[in-house]
Design brief:
The strands form three sheets. Strands 1, 2, 3, 4, 5 and 11 form a six-stranded mixed β-sheet that branches. The protein has a three-stranded parallel β-sheet with strand order 8-7-9. Strands 6-10 form a two-stranded antiparallel ribbon. The chain is built from 21 helices and eleven strands. 53% of the residues are buried.
Amino acid sequence: MPIGPPDVNRDVNRRQFVAGAGRVATLPLFGGAAASVLAACGQKEETTKGPAAGLAAPGTTIPRVDVDWAMAPFPDETVAVIAMKEGYFDDVGIKIGPSATGAKLDITSSPAPLFSGQVQVGSGVIEAFIPQLDTVTQIKSFVYLGNFNGTVIMAPPGSSAKTVDDFMSEGDTFEVALKKTMAQLKGKSVALATDPAARFFYRTVFDLGGISSKDFDRKDLSSTNIVNLALAGRVDFPAPSGGVELLTLRNRGFKTLVSDGEMIEKSNDPRRFQLAIHSGYLTTKKYYDEHYETILRAASVVYRALQDVQDNFSRAASDQLPFLNAYAGFELTKPQLHGIHESVANLKTFDTVETYFGDKESPLNIDTVAKAQIAALRKDGVLKKEHTPSDLEGAKRVWDDLRRYKAESDKLFADKGVAKGSQQLVARAHQQYDAFNYLDSYRFLAAAAKKES
C-alpha cells in the first residue's frame, strides 16, 4: 500500500493559496551552567525594534517568555518539533505552548488562530497570503524552512518515455526538450492531482509544452488515489503533488519526466517565478515589532534544528517522525523523510538560506518571487492596491540581524580584554553562539566587556 494519510482531502488543504493565485492563469549542548543565565519566569522581555534601534543592550540573563506555536502536518513545517523535544527553545528562554509540542493547526489554511492571539507563531507558506494582501495585512514571516518542489509528471517502470533531462542530454534546449516530453502524453491517460497548488504547474507546463488537456485522457484525483492508480498499472502518466506520494512512486521505479523544480530552475519563462513556494514560520506584524528579540531567538532555534537535520539526521528524525506520523497519519521511515527534506522540501540552514535573499535573478529569491506574483495578481485584478514584498516578508531582516550579532560577537571574542576576569560570561556566550543565538552571545560578551571597562 502507498504511504499516506487516510484523508484524501489533505491534497486540497496543503497549499490552498494557489486556488487564489490560480486566477492569474485563467489567469545536550546546554546544561546547568547555561540554565543559570535564564531569568526567572515572568521577567519582562527585553525588546528592541531591530536595526533602526541599534544593537541590543548588554545583559547577563535571557528573559523567560511563553510562545504558543502552531504547526501544520507536513515534513517541512514540523521541523520545529525537533527543537521542542531537544529543549532548544528552553535554552533561549522560550516556553512552548499550549503543549510541549505546540498546537496542531494549519495557519496556511486558516490564519484566524494567529490573528486572534490563540498562537503567536504558526507554520505556513508566505506565498499563501500574497493574493490576500488587500485584506490580510497582519502576517509577517520571520524564518524560512525551504522551498517546496513536489509536483511532477511521472512514467511507470519500463516505460520508453523520455524525460526532459534525456532530451537535453541529446543536445536540446530546455524549451525544445519540454515540448518533446509533453508530446509523449498525447492520446495517453494522465492523472492530475486535485491539489490547487499543482494547478498552476499543470497549466504552465502544458502551455509551454505545446499541448492541452484535450490531447490526453485526463483523470482528476487526489494524489493518494493517483498513487493507488499508478501502482495498479491503470494510468500511463501519474502526476501527483506531494513529497510522500512522489517518493512512494520513485521508490517503486517510476521516473520523473518533468517537475516543478526543473521548471523553476531551467525555464526562462517569467511564469516560473509563480511556481515558487516557500515554507516557514510566521507571526503577526504586531508581535514581530513588539517582541523582536523573542523573534530573533525563535529564529535561531529553528536554524539550530535545521542544522541538526543536516548534521545529525538520525537523531533529528527520531525526534520528528513519531510526532509527524501520528499527526498526519503517515508511515514515513527515516530514509523517506530524508528524501523529502533533501529533494522535495529543500530545507535550508542558516548558511544556505542566503539563496532566498541574495541573487535577485534567482527564481527562488523571496523578493523577486513576491514582486512577480504581486504584479501578476495586480494585472489580473485580484489585487487592487499597491503592495511590496515587505508587507509580508520579515525573515531577511531577522537573518541579517543574526549575522550582524554574529559578526559583533566575533569581534568581541577576538578582544583579549573581554575574557579577562569574565570567563563565565564568555563561556555562556560561546554556548549561545554555537546554538545560533547570536543575539545573546553578543549581549553576554558586551556585558563582559562592560565589566572590564
